[in-house]
User: Which sequence fits this backbone?
């Protein structure tokens, strides 16, 4: 049997290396993107100001906010959600920002894009020094299609070089380069090679430049032979990939869905999300959903508005907020805890939908996890087989995600009967092992 066990040990080790589990790092709950030509070192703060003003203008109280988003539960829950959303917008409205050279920038002359890359890098370096950048930041270049490949890598090189030179040889914390519209493995391999060359030339540590996949085409999901493509992308990324983002509108367009029906909750999008979820399960890759493209903006502009015009503005914003909230909750039900936001006025919805999603069931989940841990620990202690670890892990995941997005505070963990350190093990079985040892 020793030979069998040795081979099994090697096979198990290989499996563990390929599927080490979820990342223990903080995942941003959203990515806000904006054209590179508009980016400033103070952009995140400015977005936060606009987001907070939109909350106060269109939902000055918890009841109005809850009604606009269609939140359920008692008034006390709505008050708590509103309080936490308002505090989040003041403290850290933008968690992740993508300086965009693709859809948000468009096709421009080379000289103009070169200048935008240099200017955006200068503003990023300025934000590093001033401490005004969001916790996560990066750039999105154009695709590596035959038409765009040279422009894409040229922008990558111009931006990263200028940034490192102006920032004293450093990169911002959690910096990432996003590769859009991937259609085959060779594009990922080429992008990784470009990142390696930049690291060597700029004397950056190996692996410092991280990347993200954007899944926006059928070929992003399936290879030419019908195999799921994502594991191959991950292999050629050589440990550099940190996330995979779903592109709702490019994907639906690529499978011939008409514009009227290109929505976040279209069944074809759920199909793609599930493929991504299953293909990348057990890896540290974060998954992110797309964006709601209906902007919460009133039809009437100016200061001298009639009462009817003001009312129509509120109604338009509330309709867009409700749609956005429904999309965020749809993503959450499918275990996508990150998404894209396109407008500052979408940020109150992002946090409102997130916080209500977790807070609605907080008391029940706390009691259930506490009872579950006690029974499981007792069964383990007396030598019984406890065969429902998956349920325990599911409950634990609820609290891990709620903590990550800021829906609950560390102090609220106490109601589960667990310590913060136990929660942070991220493993139900490790918690049981630790308690058995005690």
Assistant:
């Amino acid at each position: 049997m020793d030979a069998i066990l040795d081979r099994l040990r090697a096979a198990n080790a290989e499996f563990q290396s390929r599927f080490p589990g979820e990342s223990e790092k903080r995942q941003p709950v959203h990515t806000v993107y904006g054209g590179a030509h508009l980016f400033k070192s103070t952009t995140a703060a400015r977005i936060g100001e606009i987001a907070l003003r939109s909350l106060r203008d269109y939902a000055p109280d918890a009841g109005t906010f809850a009604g606009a988003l269609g939140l359920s539960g008692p008034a006390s829950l709505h008050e708590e959600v509103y309080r936490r959303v308002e505090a989040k917008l003041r403290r850290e409205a933008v968690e992740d920002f993508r300086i965009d050279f693709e859809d948000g920038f468009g096709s421009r002359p080379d000289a103009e894009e070169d200048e935008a890359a240099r200017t955006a890098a200068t503003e990023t370096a300025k934000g590093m020094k001033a401490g005004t950048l969001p916790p996560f930041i990066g750039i999105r270049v154009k695709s590596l299609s035959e038409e765009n490949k040279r422009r894409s890598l040229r922008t990558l090189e111009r931006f990263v070089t200028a940034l490192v030179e102006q920032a004293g040889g450093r990169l911002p914390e959690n910096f990432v380069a996003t590769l859009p519209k991937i259609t085959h493995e060779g594009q990922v391999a080429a992008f990784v090679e470009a990142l390696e060359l930049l690291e060597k030339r700029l004397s950056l540590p190996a692996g410092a430049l991280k990347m993200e996949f954007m899944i926006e085409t059928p070929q992003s999901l399936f290879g030419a032979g019908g195999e799921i493509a994502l594991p191959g992308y991950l292999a050629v990324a050589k440990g550099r990939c940190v996330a995979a983002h779903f592109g709702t509108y490019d994907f639906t367009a690529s499978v011939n869905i008409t514009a009227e029906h290109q929505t976040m909750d279209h069944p074809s999008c759920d199909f793609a999300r599930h493929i991504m979820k299953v293909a990348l399960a057990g890896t540290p890759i974060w998954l992110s959903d797309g964006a709601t493209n209906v902007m919460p903006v009133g039809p009437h502009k100016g200061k001298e508005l009639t009462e009817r015009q003001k009312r129509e503005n509120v109604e338009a914003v509330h309709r867009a907020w409700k749609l956005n909230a429904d999309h965020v909750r749809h993503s959450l039900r499918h275990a996508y805890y990150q998404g894209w936001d396109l407008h500052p006025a979408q940020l109150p919805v992002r946090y409102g939908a997130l916080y209500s999603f977790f807070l609605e069931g907080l008391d029940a989940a706390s009691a259930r996890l506490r009872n579950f841990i006690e029974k499981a620990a007792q069964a383990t202690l007396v030598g019984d087989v406890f065969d429902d670890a998956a349920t325990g892990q599911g409950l634990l995941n609820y609290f891990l995600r709620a903590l990550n997005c800021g829906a609950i505070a560390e102090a609220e963990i106490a109601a589960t009967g667990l310590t913060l350190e136990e929660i942070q093990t991220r493993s139900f079985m490790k918690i049981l092992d630790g308690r058995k040892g005690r």
In short: Residues 361-437 form one domain. The first helix runs from residue 2 to 18.
